Amino acid sequence: MLNNLGENVEREGLLDTPKRYAKAMMYLTQGYKADIKEVINGALFSSTATGVVVVKDIDFFSMCEHHILPFHGKVHIAYIPSGKVLGLSKFARVVEVFARRLQIQEQLNEQIADAIEDILEPKGVIVSIEAAHMCMSMRGVQKIGSKTLTTVARGELKDDQKCNETLFKFFNSSVS
Ligand SMILES: Nc1nc2c(ncn2[C@@H]2O[C@H](COP(=O)(O)OP(=O)(O)OP(=O)(O)O)[C@@H](O)[C@H]2O)c(=O)[nH]1
Ligand SMILES: [Zn+2]
User: Fold this and answer.
1) How many domains does the chain have?
2) Ligand lying nearest the CA atom of residue 67
3) Which residue puts its alpha carbon closest to atom 22 of ligand 1?
4) Ligand 2 centroid to residue 142 C-alpha, Å
5) Is the domain of 25 the same as that of 106?
């Protein structure tokens, strides 16, 4: 790549760049090697809880599969327990597993929802992602402020439109 750019690959600043780049790429795509079971690490607890649980504003960095440029933003997750609850930090760990791959936002959204369903077998789940895509801001169409919003709802949180709308508003509100 550096040769193709017309760079002098012998100059000091670039000598270790291929190695650094490979290392950075391995880090940014480490989700391929992750094992969800290990990630959950047994933090799945029996519970009689019936109320909606929301974990919002989970920040993430991913890489778009079309341009291998970053897209980043926030993931919001809500679910209705059905006999089990998951350790709260594990939602962010699940997000990391799927974000640290070459992705498109829609697929990332589906995969996170699938994983939550598999792990928790909840009565309902909703996962929403808001993200900015570098391939749309630093190149191409060059729209800096644009954000992409995707949502996947399953079970009771798909069927209950009112609850769905309330959660969606909460996802997009700021709370401190
Ligand atoms: N649906 C979806 N599209 C994405 C995502 N990330 C990037 N893209 C789009 O993938 C498309 C690839 O289009 P192409 O026309 O093949 O590539 P391109 O010539 O680089 O397109 P431009 O970005 O319009 O310059 C672009 O429209 C990108 O915006 C994503 O997460 N989801
Ligand atoms: Zn892209």
Assistant:
1) 2
2) 2
3) 140
4) 12
5) no
> How does DSSP classify residue 80?
E
> The whole model's pTM is what?
0.95
How is residue 148 written in tokens? 């992409």
Residue 62 structural domain: 36-171
> 18, 2 in Cβ contact below 8 A?
yes
Question: 66 CA to middle of ligand 1, Å?
Answer: 6
> Is residue 45 domain-resident?
yes
Task: List the residue whose alpha carbon is closest to atom 29 of ligand 1.
Answer: 136
Question: Rounded CA gap, 106 and 26, in Å?
Answer: 23
* Mean pLDDT for the chain overall: 96
Q: Which ligand is located closest to the Cα atom of residue 104? A: 1
Smallest CA separation from ligand 1 atom 20, residue: 140
Q: What ipTM was predicted for this assembly?
A: 0.93
Q: Give the integer Cα–Cα distance in Å for 135 and 125.
A: 30
Question: What was the pLDDT predicted at 121?
Answer: 98
Q: Are 25 and 105 found together in one domain?
A: no
